[in-house]
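Subject: sequence -> structure tokens, single chain

Hey, anyone have a minute? Need the predicted structure for the following. Not urgent.
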Amino acid sequence: MTWRAILASVVGGCCLLPVAAQAGDDDLVTHQTLSPELAADLAEATLEACRAADYQVAVAVVDRFGVLQVLLRDRYAGPHTPDTARRKAWTAVSFRTDTQSLVAATAAGTPQAAARDIEGALMLGGGVPVEASGTMVGGIGVSGAPGGDEDDRCARAGIDAILDRLEF
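Reply:
Had a minute. Here:
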């Protein structure tokens, strides 16, 4: 006898059917995420925005789950920049907010300061979630400009360059 049959005999079955039907609605989910082509275009547009400002950077694009899709490193970007860019993108997706905002929100002495101890998280400006019609579809991280605010500016310029393809 299955657990549902046992429960039905105990409860009389009157409450089981609405619960089972309601639970079935959440069994499968659908989501939107960046295609590899759009992720590549986002990374390239971001790299170009940084180059226009004379910054040598690395750009990472992750999907909505934080899995790396694209990583570009300009020829003179520092050796630390690829991993830093990836971690910024992952952090933006994981926390569902830009990492520039997380710098202050997780500062020492704040209730959220322990978030800095989460493995892989990096609370430096330059990570931005990518949204389409109010749904997060990925994230982008930039590392190598002369500060987090400039990394953030490059990331947003890249998003702006593909914005028309994000609206559905």
